[in-house]
Specification:
Helix 3 packs antiparallel against helix 11, helix 10 packs antiparallel against helix 11 and helix 12 packs antiparallel against helix 13. The chain has 14 helices and nine strands. A hairpin with an 8-residue loop joins strand 8 and strand 9. By secondary structure, the chain is an alpha+beta fold. The longest helix is centred in the middle third of the chain and has 33 residues.
């Protein structure tokens, strides 16, 4: 699920935890200084933009959060599909969001507390000029689209193993199949979230529900299996709905709006997912399978980076050198918690409730060390 779709109370409580990541990003964003950037000022009750019309192509939002809550800024199509986004913007911090947009109508949204639709401003990209880019970046987009589709295609059979077990009332089999069913989703979650309507139905936690929203999806079933320890008629119905919702996702992946900058921003978003859900143990609070999600998120980010690296390394060799180092360090750290004795296909990790404070701190530090340089990747691919 998205890094933070918390209640207001939880969002305020997590500000301290987020500042390690967002503070690093602020340092890199402060260097932008692009006079052509669109300034976005987010408060608790408004979203002000300095320009409501701008040339199509590469767009940079210089975001400042003057509110009291963690916020999120999104560039949206009129139908609420996400073009690009930056989450976890702490109070008093500044960030840069780099994106590519075609000529047309859009909305810029500021979402205080990272819940709901937030405050929006209609904007327009004019001129019909496509962003000029290296042909290798077109190849990177094509490669990532193939990767996202392959992950979705591979997810459905694994989900069916899980949902078949739920429908059969087999508690143990359902528990065993739960974490594997989520791997493909977690690797490509920014693509799934870009559609807007699928993530809330499939991957929302109880404290991320909107007013009046029915709780469905993986985490509702996770609670039934591990906390309630029972499968009833309602859970069997929810299993079938999960099949249907994820089939919808799988069929729509090929239509996702993907650009080099959305790939780079999505990689950073996956690290934010880890920092605010997996490291804290909040994402898989009943099953404690957080490290499976953690590893999948990192793999997805690393795939996007690998596809963009040929261009990024030419534009910023020091950045890619640091990213190589930090990805390798985090991968090695995660491997310490594998319980599958080197059988990487089995994807088994230590239950997160067995991971102590010192190890969690080390994991958090590893994520933060990677998140800071990863926040610069989008700018590096459009230089």
């Amino acid at each position: 699920m998205r890094a933070v779709r918390f209640s207001v109370t939880t969002a305020v409580a997590t500000v301290a935890a987020l500042t390690v990541v967002t503070g690093c990003t602020e340092k890199s964003d402060a260097k932008s200084g692009d006079a052509g950037a669109i300034r976005v000022t987010a408060t608790d009750d408004s979203c002000k933009v300095s320009k409501t019309a701008f040339p199509a192509g590469h767009v940079e939002l210089a975001v400042e959060n003057k509110g009291s809550r963690v916020t999120e800024v999104e560039i949206l199509f009129p139908d609420d599909r996400i073009v690009s986004e930056r989450e976890n913007i702490g109070p008093g911090t500044k960030h840069t969001l780099t994106a590519e947009v075609k000529s047309g109508d859009y909305r810029i949204a500021c979402i205080p507390g990272m819940k709901g639709k937030g405050h929006r401003q209609d904007v327009k990209a004019t001129g019909g000029k496509a962003a000029k880019r290296d042909p290798r970046l077109d190849a990177a987009v094509a490669g990532y689209r193939q990767y996202a589709q392959a992950q979705a295609d591979a997810t459905l059979p694994k989900v069916k193993v899980f949902t078949d077990a739920v429908r059969a009332g087999d508690l143990d089999a359902a528990k065993k199949a739960y974490a594997p069913s989520r791997i493909g989703w977690e690797r490509t979650e920014p693509v799934a979230e870009s559609f807007g309507d699928i993530d809330p139905k499939t991957d929302t936690r109880a404290d991320g529900l909107e007013d009046g929203q029915k709780w469905t999806g993986w985490h509702r079933l996770e609670k039934a299996l591990w906390q309630d320890k029972k499968i009833g008629a309602a859970e069997k119905t929810l299993a079938t709905q999960l099949d249907e919702d994820l089939t919808d996702w799988q069929q729509r992946v090929g239509k996702a709006e993907i650009t080099p900058t959305s790939m780079a921003n999505g990689a950073k978003e996956l690290l934010d997912e880890v920092a605010t859900g997996k490291v804290t143990g909040e994402e898989e609070r009943y099953s404690h399978t957080d490290l499976v999600d953690f590893k999948a998120n990192v793999e997805g980010a690393e795939k996007a980076y690998a596809l963009l690296k040929p261009v990024a390394s030419e534009n910023d060799a020091a950045l890619t050198k640091e990213l190589d180092k930090q990805f390798a360090a985090l991968d090695a750290l995660l491997d310490r918690f594998r319980t599958d004795k080197g059988d990487t296909a089995s994807y088994e990790f230590t239950s997160y409730d067995k991971v102590g404070k010192a190890d969690r701190k080390e994991l958090s530090d590893g994520v933060n060390a990677l998140a800071e340089p990863l926040s610069k990747l989008a700018a590096a691919v459009v230089k």
